[in-house]
Hints:
Largest sheet: 2 strands, antiparallel
Structural class: mainly alpha
Radius of gyration: 19 Å
Bound molecules: zinc ion
Distance between the termini: 56 Å
Number of strands: 2
Helix content: over 70%
Oligomer: single chain
Amino acid sequence: MKDYIDKKDINNNITNNSNLKMLIFKIKFSKLEILHLSIATILVTAVGLSLNNYRYVSWEFLIIFVSAFLVHELAHKLLAQFYGGWAEFRTNSYGLLVTAFSAIPFIPFKFIAPGAVVIDLSDRSKFGRVAFIGPLTNLFMGFIFFILSHQYPLIGYLYIGALFNSWIALFNLLPFGNLDGQKIFSWNKIVWIFMMVCTMGLFVLINT
Ligand SMILES: [Zn+2]
């Protein structure tokens, strides 16, 4: 019996590993999606750089702003495709306009909402999890940057990484409109409260 369980576990592991490999190689992008993602990434990076009125442009800042946006969106896409659904990133004109406006220096209100991954998934629970994974990536990266910023206080961009990621997580968790927060809230209110408390906690930690 023990032997059987071990073999079964090994087989499961092999299946899981090959699923993961297939998942990574199977992630599909259309040319239209790459165009939309590129436009959105440029705008998000511009909003990030506008926080310092474009005075400091370095590859560290570029990596922080691009990863905060792309990792979030690709996590949605990857999980939705893993569940067998259709998922592609699309900008929307109102979101592009608001984000472009936010990229203007000295504008105090910064909104990053150039578009979203459009998902076709009928299962409500899977749809909720796909929404949940986006802000979770920013919360996770925010905590990593926060810990590193304490270990290496002289490296200023680590603090910016913590701040930018926690801000993106918080904004996306708002339970309104088409934001991830609304989808998580209608799927599972406990998960939404947990995420909100963690994100607020990170915010307090960063700003004290
Ligand atoms: Zn999202």
